[in-house]
Specification:
By secondary structure, the protein is α+β, with helices and mostly antiparallel strands. It is about 55% helix and about 10% strand. The chain starts with 5 loop residues before the first helix and ends with a helix.
Length: about 1000
């Protein structure tokens, strides 16, 4: 029988049908591809126009087949071949095609193979199409939408990163050339730089972008890449203030032969490099030389056309350079760090260098002529600058005139329309409200509030207008005579008229739960907690969202209310506070089976204590001392109410006792010795005082967050947690720690607690040792944190004046050295990571693949026999070393039983291991190289064990990617349906084993899905 081609089969299956309407297609996309709809809407791409554009290119019938549930794999394979000959797709169509190819690889792959197509290269082509559409979109998003622009650039970066990993000419990249990869690298560099203009970008991404852009510039004398390279270097300098970044880029600049009348943004960035270098010049002569070079670069721009935003930047930098030329004395203390013009002007909650305010008149003068002609970019930047200046100079006579001028510029000017967009309108409202306070003008206040209500009505899902409105009402009272608008929410109108700011904030919080306007980020890595904050700084508002049980939330609210009363009664509201709870959203069907809610809380314009301390140099600032006093205030006041008993059991079972069991076989005795060092201390209610549980607002006020914890701890334990869970002092800096200890004890005593000072010093040192053990055993910790914990123990063992504290710390340091695979307990790195990896790999080979190994029951092998095997193959090892490496914390591949070792999985020789039973999760993952997708999907072979006994799966996507990447090639992440996995068993840690997985139980995860998965994690 002749197998029909995909196109023939598609024609038979399709047949005549009624042409679908646009409305039908939009509903179909919304129903079947909701995550794609969310993704495009988050980067300001509307669904309806996208569907219309897709229909114009491919026709409604074709679009209906792509999005329809009943379309066969054969039809989709045929459509794919035909659509590749058409015009470049829009983003919606590209994402849906990638989704269909990825999800239905089992069927589409087989039909592509029958027509001599390639599933692997089709998937690559689909991702190239998505990438191209994303990059194009980045360049079309206007600068006045910074959150959207940053989000679009970051998504484009993820796709480009996938493409860059493909090896040109390989089986997975037959249609992928070196030139293609170079283009992807160049685009990667550019979108990272664009994202950095408006958001926080990881240093690693910036460094990679910098490398790609320099290579692109040097490869083909690429004007655009060279300029972006300079901008990436400037952003890296802003991140770390490392002058070496500037000197390196300055040296590179000097090697480039650049025409005087070309490369506009190049000259602009060169000027900013040399202006920043002034701060690091060692002599007056050098400072003057650097300024002269910057001025020379700026002079070249006078006759070059620049994109308007960069023209504004040029005018501002030129004004600063001229101002410095006239006031050369300012060069001695000049710093431009933090000045990212004009982008940073709109972020009002960031610090700007003094020169911005010193040169205010020059900057205003540089922007005013074009602004008064109605030029939008100039008006926007000048209005932002004037608002910033008015807020900085809180008592100056120029405040009101500057605000009036900012307001005028946002209104129609020189027959040009008013500045539009949410950010501009909200900034206008803020300026009206501030001017109203300065001039005591009720009519101006009403105008500001009218704008906020108008913006809420125009976009009812946006939180910022409501936040600003609530803040105004909260701080300055009700507006009884505000006019009713036909479409205004009755509850909102009532809240404004009666001054109920809390009701308005609850409305804003509800919007924040779903709004794409605000960016979401983890609150310092804390589990289950994210913040949703206003990137532009217009509202200066952050919402804290936390998934928590209803019981935990009720406990949190009760403690927060009591603590707020304590603070008010002590008249400490100017120093301390509690994050305000706004509302809760019930979660249906939570996986824990316990009733859960999303708790929504807020704080204004602040950061975690850890983030604040990370920016400090030298000894910690007043903010840490204030936090120590707040901790004592909480402990003393709650101890009076709760009268807690010692929490020995909780610390033994949930904290230190558990950590010690991971390090030493004598964990029980070690904990008893430690408890004897702290048991004389009074018991205090558990606060969980690490530096992520405190927020610092714009007025340096300390706010307590997360008061849901239960139980108690001995005094001094949480002081140690606050100071050393995220290292603040060097391990040997006990003068700094002792100062905070004394402050804490005095604060407790002033609040009526009786504390033996000498015993408290001993308990504090013992508690610091306990927190060091936490750092050593935290599975999410970094090597630098583990090193800090180890050095703390060594410092205490060497210098503590309490012999029993020193002895305990020394015992644990020695136990850790052995457990971590270190042969010399006096040094942290006596065995290099490379040596440990070498030994581990050699062990794994013989335990997994050596049929002649002296293996006994269930894969076990005596350490002496294994050492002999390794020695015979050229490795210098001892049995004790093998036992240490196999038992090291974090080593999941091996298991120990006395003097025997076995590999838990990865065998090519059947060891007949009995695995424990476990309920499979709803979804598993497997990562494989791109070239294997052909056999998996085209040949419908699925996943087979090949040379191994089992197929290895993971319940964690990141772990699956790490395992798959060991071969050194880029991998594709597959979603695995456990129902399609034969003989599924649990091997421990994140690893599951199956004898085979059917292709029907597999699908490739799209990049959008992986990004969403990371956000959920």
């Amino acid at each position: 029988m002749t197998i029909p081609t995909p196109s023939e089969l598609a024609a038979r299956l399709s047949g005549p049908r009624e042409e679908p309407t646009i409305r039908m297609l939009v509903l179909q996309v919304q129903t079947d591809f909701p995550h794609i709809v969310r993704s495009i809407e988050r980067i300001d791409i509307s669904l309806l126009p996208s569907v219309k554009q897709w229909i114009e290119v491919e026709g409604s019938v074709s679009v209906a087949q792509w999005v329809g549930r009943g379309t066969t794999s054969a039809a989709l394979a045929s459509l794919w071949g035909a659509s590749r000959q058409l015009a470049p797709p829009n983003l919606l169509s590209a994402l849906i095609k990638e989704q269909q190819l990825s999800t239905r690889g089992d069927g589409i792959g087989a039909y592509l193979r029958s027509s001599r197509g390639s599933y692997v290269n089709s998937l690559l082509a689909a991702r190239r199409a998505v990438s191209a559409a994303l990059v194009q979109n980045v360049y079309t998003v206007p600068f006045h939408m910074p959150v959207v622009l940053a989000r679009a650039a970051n998504l484009a970066r993820e796709y480009l990163q996938e493409l860059i990993g493909i090896e040109p000419g390989s089986d997975a990249g037959l249609t992928w050339s070196v030139e293609n990869r170079h283009a992807a690298e160049r685009d990667f560099g550019k979108v990272v730089v664009i994202a950095a203009r408006f958001s926080t970008v990881e240093v690693g991404h910036l460094e990679t972008a910098q490398g790609y852009l320099r290579a692109a510039a040097e490869r083909s004398f690429d004007i655009s890449a060279a300029s972006y390279h300079l901008e990436a270097s400037l952003e890296l300098y802003r991140k770390g203030s490392d002058k070496n970044v500037l000197t390196d880029i300055a040296s590179w600049i000097n090697t480039q032969d650049v025409p005087d009348n070309d490369w506009g943004t190049w000259h602009l960035n060169v000027a900013e490099v040399w202006l920043n270098l002034i701060e690091h010049a060692e002599t007056e002569r050098a400072r003057q030389q650097f300024l002269a070079i910057a001025r020379k670069s700026l002079a070249r721009l006078k006759d070059i056309d620049l994109e308007l935003t960069f023209e504004v930047r040029f005018r501002m930098l030129a004004a600063i350079a001229e101002f410095l030329t006239e006031r050369s004395s300012l060069l001695n203390d000049l710093t431009l760090r933090g000045m990212k013009l004009p982008f940073a002007l709109r972020v009002t909650n960031t610090d700007m260098p003094p020169i911005l305010f010193q040169a205010a008149d020059a900057l205003v003068g540089a922007l005013s002529p074009a602004a008064n002609r109605g030029q939008y970019a100039y008006r926007d930047s000048l209005a932002d600058l004037l608002s910033r200046l008015a807020r900085h100079d809180k008592r100056g006579a120029e405040r009101a005139p500057r605000l009036r001028e900012a307001i005028r510029l946002r209104n129609p000017v020189a027959q040009k329309d008013a500045l539009a967009g949410m950010r501009s309108r909200l900034a206008q409202a803020q300026d009206y409200l501030l001017l109203a306070r300065i001039e005591s003008a009720v009519d101006l206040r009403r105008r500001g509030i009218d704008i906020l209500i108008e913006q809420h009505l125009s976009d009812s899902g946006a939180p910022s207008p409501l936040v600003l409105l609530a803040t105004e009402i909260e701080e300055h009272g009700a507006l009884p005579n505000v006019l009713a608008v036909p479409s205004i929410n009755v509850d909102l109108l009532r809240a404004v008229r009666t001054g109920n700011s809390e009701a308005i904030l609850r409305m804003a919080a509800k919007c924040a739960l779903a709004s794409p306007e605000l960016r979401r980020r983890g609150l310092g890595g804390r589990g289950g907690v994210v913040t949703v904050d206003d990137y532009s700084g217009v509202s200066g508002q952050t919402f804290i969202l936390k998934d928590m049980s209803l019981e935990s939330q009720q406990r949190d609210l009760s403690r927060a209310r009591a603590l707020s009363i304590d603070i008010r009664d002590a008249e400490l509201e100017a120093r301390f506070g509690v994050v305000e709870h706004l509302m809760s959203e019930h979660i249906d069907g939570h996986e824990s089976g316990v009733e859960h809610v999303i708790s929504v809380r807020r704080y204004l314009s602040g950061r975690t204590l850890r983030a604040v301390l990370a920016e400090q140099t030298g000894s910690p600032a007043r903010v840490l001392k204030s936090c120590v006093e707040f901790l004592a205030f909480i402990h003393a006041n709650e101890a009076k109410r709760m009268k807690p008993r010692h929490g020995r059991r909780d610390i033994k079972t949930k904290e230190l006792g558990r950590w010690l069991r991971a390090i030493t076989p004598n964990g029980e005795a070690s904990f008893a010795k430690w408890w004897s060092l702290v048991e004389s201390m009074p018991a205090l209610p558990r606060r969980d005082a690490h530096s992520l549980n405190w927020l610092v607002d714009g007025d340096a006020r300390i706010l307590a967050v997360d008061l849901e914890t239960v139980g108690s701890r001995p005094a001094m334990y949480e002081l140690a947690q606050l100071i050393d869970d995220s290292p603040i002092y060097a391990p040997d800096d006990w003068s700094g720690r002792n100062e905070l200890h004394s402050l804490y004890v005095r604060a407790l005593e002033n609040l009526g607690m009786d504390v033996d000072y000498e015993m408290s010093r001993k308990a504090y040192q013992a508690s610091t040792a306990a927190r060091a053990v936490s750092l050593l055993t935290d599975p999410t910790g970094t090597n630098s944190l583990r090193l800090h914990g180890f050095k703390l123990l060594k410092e205490l063992s060497a210098s503590s004046e309490f012999a029993d504290v020193a002895a305990w710390a020394d015992d644990i340091a020695v136990a850790w050295s052995v457990k971590a695979g270190l042969s010399d307990p006096t040094r942290y790195n006596s065995i290099s990571p490379a040596d440990k990896m070498r030994i581990s790999k050699a062990m794994a080979f013989h335990l997994r693949h050596d049929a002649d190994a002296f293996v006994v029951r269930g894969g076990w092998m005596y350490a002496e026999d294994l050492a002999e095997k390794l020695k015979a193959s050229g490795h210098r090892v001892t049995p004790s070393q093998l036992l240490v490496v196999a038992g090291a914390m974090g080593e999941k591949r091996f298991e120990l039983d006395g003097l025997e070792i076995r590999a838990l999985y990865g065998h090519s020789v059947d060891m007949r291991i009995d695995y424990g039973e476990a309920k499979a999760p709803k979804q598993l993952y497997h990562a494989t190289t791109s070239d294997r997708l052909a056999s998996i999907f085209e040949a419908r072979a699925g996943l087979r064990s090949m040379s191994r006994v089992y197929v290895h799966l993971s319940d964690n996507p990141e772990a699956a990617i790490q395992a798959g990447a060991r071969r050194g090639a880029p991998v594709q992440l597959l979603r695995v349906d456990p129902k399609g996995a034969s003989g599924l068993v649990f091997a421990g840690a994140n690893t599951w084993l199956a004898t085979a997985v059917k292709s029907t139980g597999l699908s490739v995860m799209t990049v959008v899905e992986q990004v969403a998965l990371e956000a959920e994690d």
